[in-house]
Amino acid sequence: VEGRHVAAGQAFPGITTFAGPVDMASLVAGKVELVDMLRKEKYEDLATEYGWEVRRGEARFVEGPALEVDGERIEAAHYLVATGASPWVPPVPGLDTTGYLTSTTALELDHLPESMIVVGGNYVGLELGQLFARLGSDVTLVEALPRLAAAEEPEISEVIEGVLADEGVEVWTSASLAKVSRDGEKIVATVADGREVRAEAILMATGRRANTTGLSLDVVGVEVGPTGSVVVDDQLRTANPRIWAAGDVTGAPQFVYVAGSHGTMVVENAFEDAGRRVDYSHLPRVTFTTPNIAAVGLTDAEVGPAGLSCTCRVLPLAYVPRAIVNRDTRGVVKIVAEVGTGRVVGIHMIGANAGDAILAATYALEANMTVDQLAHTWAPYLTMAEGIKLAAQSFTTDVAKLSCCAT
After folding, report:
1. Residue range of the domain that includes 236
2. d(C-alpha 235, C-alpha 268), whole Å
3. What's this model's pTM, rounded to 2 decimal places?
4. Is-cis flag, bond preceding 93, omega within 30?
5. 79 and 213 within one domain
6. Sign of the Cα pseudo-torsion (335, 337, 339, 341, in order)
7. Which of 29, 34, 74 is nearest to 53 (CA)?
8. CA–CA separation, 273 vs 327, rounded Å?
9. Tell me: the pLDDT tens digits for 20-49?
10. What are the tens digits of pLDDT across the range 307-342?
C-alpha cells in the first residue's frame, strides 16, 4: 500500500511513476498467507518444539480452582488467562441493522469499497482510514473528540489531520455518531449535530474489550473491571493467588510486545517467585500511519498531574536533514523536560520512520538522560533519530542557524 502511494506521487524530479488499480482479493489473500505462515512458525510449531500439550475447546473455570474444557477437568498449580481482546462497538441506533466492519473484518474484504466511513480517530481508525484511502476508497473519518490522536501531543494531532486532508480524507472532529441507517446501497451516518455522510461501508474503530465472557471467573474469585478486563496487581496476579492474567485481557496497553513481556513475567513470578513488577512509564507506542506517530513518556498535559514542572521544545522536521533529503518534512519532534534538572520525561514524534527512532528515545528515558546530555550525544547524520538530538539542541540553540551535522 505504501509502495502504491509513493508511486502515485512525484516527489523526485526526473522520475515518473504511476499507481495501477488494486486487486483487493489478491492483496487480502497475500495477507492471509503471511499471517498463516507466522501463526504456524511462531506459535503452533513452537508449542510442539517445547513439548506443550495443546487442547482445543471452550474453557471455563470451576471450583478448585480448575479448568473444564468441553467437559474434561484439568488441574494445575497455576493458571494463566491470556484470551486477548476483540473489537468493541458502542450501541448506536441502527448499526446492527445496517451492518458494519471492524478492524478484523475490514481486512478480510474481497473487494474495495468505493467509499467508507471510519468511526474513531485513534490508532486503529487512523491506520485503517489512511490504508483504505490509499487503496482508492473515498474515506470520511469521524471522531467524537475535538482532535484526532487525542492521547498524543496537539502538535502531532495537527500534523496527522493535515496529512490525511492532503490525501483526500475528510475529517470530522467533535462529531459523535448518533444513528446509522440505510438509503438504498448506501449507509447513512448521522452525527449529533445533524450532519450526515453516506458511504458504501462503515468501519467501527471504537476500541477493544477483553475476552472474558464465558470463563466463569467469578466462580474462582477473579475480579473483572467495568469493561470485562481481568483485574491484576502489578505482578499480574489476580485476586486468586493461583490465577494470573497477561496481555490485552488485563486492560493494559494493547501492544503485542506488552503481551509478550507479560507472559515472561508471569512465568518468572509464578514459578520462580521473581517478584517482577509491571512499569509502563517508559513504554513506547507507535501508530503506523505514514508518517508514523511515535511517543514515549509523559505528554505536556500529563506532567502537571504527575507532580512535575516541565519545559518543552517542538522541532519541525524542516530542520532535520533526513526529512529534507526525503522531500517530506511533514512532522515534528517534541521533547518534554523537567524544569531545573533538564531530565527528559517525554519524547513525541511524527515523521517518516519515527517508529524506529522512538527506540533511541526510550533508551534515553530509561537512562534518565538530560536535555544537555542528549544534545551532546553522538547522532549519525542523515537519520531520523538525529532529529531527537536536534530537538534537544533547540533548548539552548537556534537550530535554524546550524550547519548540517553541526554538533
Report:
1. 55-84+209-272
2. 10
3. 0.93
4. no
5. yes
6. negative
7. 74
8. 53
9. 889 999 999 999 999 999 999 999 999 999
10. 999 999 999 999 999 999 999 999 999 999 999 999
